[in-house]
From TrEMBL:
<protein>
    <recommendedName>
        <fullName>Cytochrome c, class II</fullName>
    </recommendedName>
</protein>
<dbReference type="InterPro" id="IPR002321">
    <property type="entry name" value="Cyt_c_II"/>
</dbReference>
<dbReference type="InterPro" id="IPR010980">
    <property type="entry name" value="Cyt_c/b562"/>
</dbReference>
<dbReference type="GO" id="GO:0022900">
    <property type="term" value="P:electron transport chain"/>
</dbReference>
<dbReference type="GO" id="GO:0005506">
    <property type="term" value="F:iron ion binding"/>
</dbReference>
<dbReference type="GO" id="GO:0020037">
    <property type="term" value="F:heme binding"/>
</dbReference>
<dbReference type="GO" id="GO:0009055">
    <property type="term" value="F:electron transfer activity"/>
</dbReference>
Length: 158
């Protein structure tokens, strides 16, 4: 085999590898669930981790609403910041690879919006403004839960 043919074969293999990686980055590890949503297939511990994070964000919503109700903007800012982008900074890349692109985008936008709510609360935003931001935030949650479900899989069911 000539050097030219070997180079072409290497480039072709590289392009196929990149294409497959991009495909799985966008698609994630999924299948269509019986209820019509996209089932994200995760190991049991990965599923538990994502669900724990979601419950934490729901708790944040409750603390933010309580803080808005009582006028405690420090509480609002502190709670929202705890679920902000920093909370997603150290997610395992192997787990992120299993999540479809839209799921990742929704999740990261939720974290970003919590940071925005924290900043707004610290900058003197009104209760109405904060609740409007929180309403937008919850719309992303509803969209995600309406589109996706997390299914735990064992090695035999993958």
């Amino acid at each position: 085999m000539t050097a030219r043919m070997l180079s072409i074969a290497a480039i072709a293999l590289w392009l196929v590898t990149i294409a497959v990686a991009v495909f799985f980055f966008i698609r994630g590890h999924t299948r269509v669930a019986p209820d019509g949503r996209t089932a994200v297939l995760l190991a049991s511990d990965e599923r538990d981790l994502v669900l724990t994070e979601m419950r934490g964000m729901l708790e944040t919503v409750q603390v933010v609403v309580d803080g808005v109700k009582t006028g405690d903007m420090k509480q609002v800012a502190q709670a929202a910041r705890a679920s902000g982008a920093a909370a997603a900074a150290d997610v395992n890349p192997a787990l992120m690879a299993k999540l479809p692109l839209e799921f990742k985008q929704l999740g990261l936008s939720v974290h970003k919006r919590f940071d925005e709510i924290a900043t707004a609360a610290g900058s003197g935003a009104s209760s109405e403004q904060l609740l409007a931001s929180l309403s937008t935030q919850l719309s992303a949650c509803v969209a995600c839960h309406g589109s996706y479900r997390l299914d735990a899989v064992t090695p035999a069911t993958k």
